[in-house]
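If it is no trouble, can you show me the amino acids of a protein and the tokens describing how it folds?
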Amino acid sequence: MSERKYFGTDGMRGQANLDPMTARTALCLGMAAGRQFIRGNHRHTVVIGKDTRLSGYLLEPALTAGFISVGMDVILVGPLPTPAVAYLTRSLRADLGVMISASHNPFQDNGIKLFGPDGFKLSDDTELAIEALMDGDQMNGLAAARDLGRASRLDDASGRYIEAVKNTFPKGLRLDGLKVVVDCANGAAYKTAPSILWELGAEVITLGVEPTGININNRCGSQHPETLCETVLAHGADIGIALDGDADRVVLCDERGRLIDGDQVLGLIARSWKRRGELADDTVVATVMSNLGLEKFLEAEGLKLERTAVGDRYVVERMRAGGYSLGGEQSGHIVLGTHSTTGDGTVAALQVLAELVLSAQPASETLRVFEPCPQALRNVRLADKATANHMLQAEPVTAAVAGWRDRLGNSGRILLRKSGTEPLIRVMVEAEDERLVEAIVSDLCCILTGASPLQIAA
């Protein structure tokens, strides 16, 4: 596959108003993506949503202008979760969907994710085709004056999505009597998530529902769940739910304030769906980052685990190829194939809440379905992405990894990978001995940063 110039593992992303996240690039992207998806003689449509970042006001009109210039109509839905845009793209029979968001990143970053008419993220090949159009003659394919697109706003977009999400909750169940804390990260779900929980009967305590344009993901949401845990304890809540900036991932905590990550959610839903006959081919799709404890739990339940590269798009691709219904990431991207085409933090949370209601037990006894293998994750920040590529292939790094893998044998895992969106190398180590895990992670991070490494023990 050719090297991509603009797109990473999850669309296009970078610091707002700096290349590539400029109005100029957004305009070119709108023109190129519009030309790529104009097929046939019907009136073509694109749905554009965004999260609550200030820079959304910069990128949204630039994208709109690009699509209009090639003859595509634009439907603006305002701040809504990423899965809502995917849903509305299919529901409205649009030709393309666009979400302006940098997900869990801080406010100064922004990104653009594209969805095809089926509501799924675009393939690598389609992104490459769009990149080629972006670098080509921008004047080619412009619409005549009478054929320009039009822009309109869909006033009931959030209501449509709210009803769709509520319909994923098992029929006959309610959340009456349940006290739920929900942290919306001052992001895209700041209105929809609390409304969904309240309408299903829960007593809702809200956090992160006052976006200012610059406070998205700021000490709140799934990336910073400390306040969620404290609030659950302070209010005696039954469970806490934390979404990220675009609400495609979720992290939970039980009534004791202990975190429940995506691996536990996958295990819980897999067991439930297996018993109800809803888990396609008795298989769960997860990434190489998912804990060994999940793999062992699923095996004990008679289920299979298939691993993919990191990124929910790769999870979805494997699910589609194999006809599987459940997949996700430890970080909280949970993809429920029978309900959505991409990760949806609110839909996943409802599945967990359903299990909590049915069990009639505290969250601490219901949601933690396996004991995770000791695991450590570290990010090593480098000067740029090119440096990250070089460091992963450097002899001191490869030699150290090989030495530690020989020592671990089959009792653990080591994974080094570059981030698809930032100049980072992510280091993950799992083993039964927690002290050994920390020693390996520290050694590898020291080598990557050029510090004095520890001596690898024989």
